[in-house]
Amino acid sequence: MAPEIVTCPVCKQKLLLQDYVTVGSEVVCNNCESTLRVEHRQPLRVALVPYQATLDPDGRPESYG
Ligand SMILES: [Zn+2]
Known about the structure:
The protein has 65 residues and is mainly β. It has one helix at residues 51-55; strands at 4-7, 14-17, 26-28, 35-40, 45-48.
């Protein structure tokens, strides 16, 4: 499997994702530094992760058992 190109949903920068990047992984755009979560492979699709969610994951109520 070869690396795939995806377009950043925020800044439209083309990003190269290696084939070991799995669905559910988070990547950071090398242009606008947005955090993106891999939603789908082949075709590759990413979604923006809200900044706050990445800032303090322990602050989310659903994190507590
Ligand atoms: Zn970007």
